[in-house]
Amino acid sequence: MPHPEDPQKTVAAVEAAWAAYRADLQAQVAAGTLSESEGKERGSERRKAAWVRAFLLTHCDMKF
């Protein structure tokens, strides 16, 4: 994961990880292990801010 002093790389890494997370949710819905409504809720833009914060805290040297 990029260092927090390189914001462009950090943003690119976060967006790629978010896209992978949403693809995983879609795969879970397709496999029947997650309901469609739950998949939509977990992948919503409303939930993205909390997901990004958690991602940065666990994958970057960032403190909020």
Tell me what the structure shows.
Helices cover about 75% and strands about 0% of the residues. With about 60 residues, the chain is an all-alpha fold. The longest helix has 25 residues. Helix 1 packs antiparallel against helix 2. The chain contains 3 helices and no strands. The chain has a domain of about 35 residues. The radius of gyration is 13 Å and the shape is elongated. About 0% of the residues are buried. Keywords: Plasmid.
What can be said about this structure in brief?
The protein is mainly alpha-helical and 64 residues long. Helix content is 73%, strand content 0%.
Looking at the structure, what is the overall shape? elongated
Helix content: over 70%
Average pLDDT confidence is: 87
* Ends distance: 17 Å
Number of helices: 3
Low-pLDDT segments, ≥5 res: none
Task: State the secondary-structure class.
Answer: mainly alpha
The radius of gyration over CA amounts to 13 Å
Number of strands: 0
Q: Strand content of the residues, in percent?
A: under 5%
Largest sheet descriptor: none
Written as H for each helix and E for each strand, in order along the chain, the element string is HHH
